[in-house]
Design goal:
The chain has 6 helices and 5 strands. By secondary structure, it is an alpha/beta fold. It has a single domain, classed as Rossmann fold (3-Layer(aba) Sandwich), CATH 3.40.50.1380. A 5-stranded parallel β-sheet has the order 3-2-1-4-5, with helices on both faces.
Length: 155
């Protein structure tokens, strides 16, 4: 991972306001990185950062917006993770509400763990990630070697 991280921001509907509040507090740090967001979360994050930065909003700052989670955005993000294009994930998910794309959410959490990415699922853990000194430094995560799995013989 380079010093400039590629951070995914995702929030379920019941957690979007939490994400907006978190971005309002951390917008200055977020401007130093590259952001990838799903659906409506991307629009809200961009609006929040633009409002907070005002005239200081850098013209070259770009948020990559994927599809909405239920429309394939979670799967798009999973593909980016598998391709090594995401360094950290802030995913404010709602454990108390049913989701039509629940299987995609579980797959996203699984692939994040598989690729040893830091993932925050609530504001407290997001605060720990965004305030870590490792966020602004190059970092090489220890990866599990899945070579034996890939080379296994099938019956």
């Amino acid at each position: 991972m380079d010093a400039i991280k590629r951070i995914a921001l995702v929030a379920h509907d019941n957690r979007k306001q939490h994400m907006v509040e978190w971005v309002e507090y951390n917008w200055g740090t977020l401007l130093k990185h590259r952001l990838v967001c799903t659906g409506t979360t991307g629009r809200l994050v961009e609006e929040t950062i633009r409002r907070k930065a005002g005239d200081d909003y850098p013209g070259d700052f770009f948020i990559r917006k994927l599809k909405s989670g239920p429309l394939g955005g979670d799967q798009q993000l999973g593909a980016l993770i598998a391709d090594g294009e995401i360094d950290a994930i802030i995913f404010f998910w709602d454990p108390m509400s049913p989701h039509p794309h629940d299987v995609d959410v579980k797959a996203l959490l699984r692939i994040s763990v598989l690729y040893n990415l830091p993932i925050a699922c609530n504001r407290s853990s997001a605060d720990f990630i965004i305030s870590s000194p490792l966020l602004a430094k190059p970092y090489e995560p220890v990866m599990t070697d899945y070579g034996a799995y890939i080379e296994r013989e099938l019956p």
